Structures are given as C-alpha cells and as structure tokens.
Amino acid sequence: MGSMTIVIILVSTILPIALVVVIMGALMKSQKQTDELLRTGTPARGRILQLGTTGGSVAVMGHRHLKLILTVEVHPQMGAPYHATFEQLVSELQLPSVQPGAEIELRIDPRNPARMAMAGVGAQGMGQPQAAWGQQQPGYRAPPAMGPAPVAVMTPQYKSAFPMMAIIMFMTTVPIAVIMLYVFVDFGSMFGSSSSSSDDDDEKSKSDSDETDSDSKKSKKKKSSGGVCAQAAACCKVISGGVADDACKNFEKGMPVEGCRQALDGYKTAAKAQNKSCD
What is the Cα–Cα distance from 236 to 249, expressed in whole angstroms? Predict the structure, then answer.
C-alpha cells in the first residue's frame, strides 16, 4: 500500500512537469523556426488584407502573445504581387498596429514563397507621392517616399523566461509532493520492515553449524524444562491424593525450571514420609 501511494504521488507530481516541458519544447521549436526565417528570409513588403485568430495565446512573464491568422498581399523584390496566408504569434501590445490595411515588412523563405513571417509593422515605400506641379517639369526627379520607420514585431522570449518558469514549477510541485509523502506514507514501518528483513537475511547467512547448535540447545532446554515441571506436577498429585490437582497443574503453566526442581525435591521427601513414590 505504501509503495503504491508513493508511485501515485510521484506520478501526479512528475506528470504536470513533463506536460509543461513537452508544451514548452513544442512552442520553442516553432518559435525557433520563425526566428530563423526572420534572420535568413528574403525581405519583402506587404499589406494585411484580413486578420483572424486561432484562439490560442501564450503568456511569457506576464506578456501575452496571440496566435493570429494573417492574409496578406505580398510585394516581393522580384516578381509580381501575390496573396498568402500564415500564422504567427503577435504581442497584444502591437495589436492596434496589426490591423487590415496596415503595411508590414515580411521575410519570405526563398525555397517556399508561401512560407513567411512578419518582421515589422509600418513598412516604408508602400505609398506613392501625389502628383505635383514640379513633377511635370523637365528634369524633375521625385524624392523617395518617406514614412515612419517600421516597428519590429515582438517575439516570445522563451529562453529568458524558462529559468523562472522552472523555479516556479519546482516551488509549486516539490513541496506539495513532500507534504503528501509525509502525510500518507509511513516511512518508519517501511524502513523498519526492510531493516528487520535484512537482519533476518544476515542471520540466515551465518554458518549452519551455529544455527544447529543453537536450535539443539533450545530444544534440550525446553525438553528438560517440561520434564522437571511435569514430574513436579505428577508428584504433587500423588501426595495430595487428588485433592489439589488443579493447583498441581500450575507447574506446567510457565513455572521456572528451578522452582519446579525445588518443588519436586520437596514432594519426593513428602512422598517417602507417606510411604508413596513419585517415580
């Protein structure tokens, strides 16, 4: 029962930790792929056409990120514009900027143009300057389109938060497991029984000759004890003439051997005086 209780407590403690580790591992792997794409992907401009949500979110150190479904119009550096849909974790602090119609910076996988990630919000160069009188003059050169600098997308920082999460998991699970083990498991009886069994094994490992001698001595002592006390009880009945038979039986109920021997000597003397024999 004690072993089963220990197993149940340990499983109930380790299982939540294992689940958190598995979930965190999957999230970190997915975010690692996104970070890799942001570093090595081909830059492109884009515009958000439609915004949806998967219903999933991740909170890291109190900072929540929502998993969004973005449908965008992609303007690659080389090639015609096209539409694409992808999912990405976006900080809730940047949600007001990530809305349909917003201009964004993208990073596209060179091997798979449908795979992309949003790198920043507020891409430059999407809009065209309005026509002005100077543009109609010969030799006029339009200035480059200027706009606000794009704001980088905030990504979940799992690595920096993992040590704190490990400490929190340790502080919330291990003390509870220790308390449950202390309350529901009797370690004293478990260790006592194991120690006694180990002592028995040690005793059994002794030489057979010592055990045989000890057993023979005990049996001889028991036999001699029973014989003397039985003789004393029988002699008591002889000299009492059956009057004190119940009292005579007490010699066979745990009377010390020395006491039985002394009583037997006295009864034999009394039997001789009555011309009776206890033999």
Answer: 9
